[in-house]
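May I ask for a protein sequence together with how it folds?
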Amino acid sequence: MIPIKDTIKSRHAPVMTVIIIIANVLVFIYQLNLPPNALNRFLYVWGVVPARFFRPGWAEYMGYPHRTPLPLFTSMFLHGGWFHLIANMWALWIFGDNVEDRMGHFRFPIFYILCGLIASAANMVLYHSSPIPTIGASGAIAGVMGAYFILFPGARILVLMPIFFYPLFFEIPAVVYLLFWFILQFLSGTQALLSGAGQVGGIAFWAHIAGFISGIILLRVFIRKRSQSETYNRYYA
């Protein structure tokens, strides 16, 4: 199921959501202009490579910088291709504006970054010996989706379900879509752990899981209380 849009209109312009999307696009354009060898080095230096943290001998042998937590942050702005970038930014656009609306422009990016840091750290610990860089904003976006799951369960998501060559569009409750997504991530991540396959198809399922759960947990800290003038039906179309 491919999400197309939700039915919740935000009351304020999603300034920080747009800035985050622009930042990701600009970094990706920079990546596209790097020669292959430089790009590979760039992803290994600024992506999260668990072996750099847990196998310092390997990192020294490979000539990579000493352990620094900075890649936990920078990896959130790196992507492996156009599809990776567009899929992540589209999900952030659908779910981010409403969560930002409820948190405010200042709290939202802090919440986003914290979810991303937790997601990256969790994935790094689970695959502590992996020499493969983990990149992408999906862990942070999963945190936004976790917050949306709690804040707007009654919203409806328009999804696209391709049936052979026929595009089928229909609406489902946000709580159903997000719960289905989370269960799929959990089952895929569990299968990857049990099989010892690591990140199946390059997808960091446990970063998604950790991000989603952290979004739910951190929501109480970052949610902005509404004034009486701001109360409205949060499920309206």
Observations:
- Residues 154 and 235 are 6 Å apart (CA to CA).
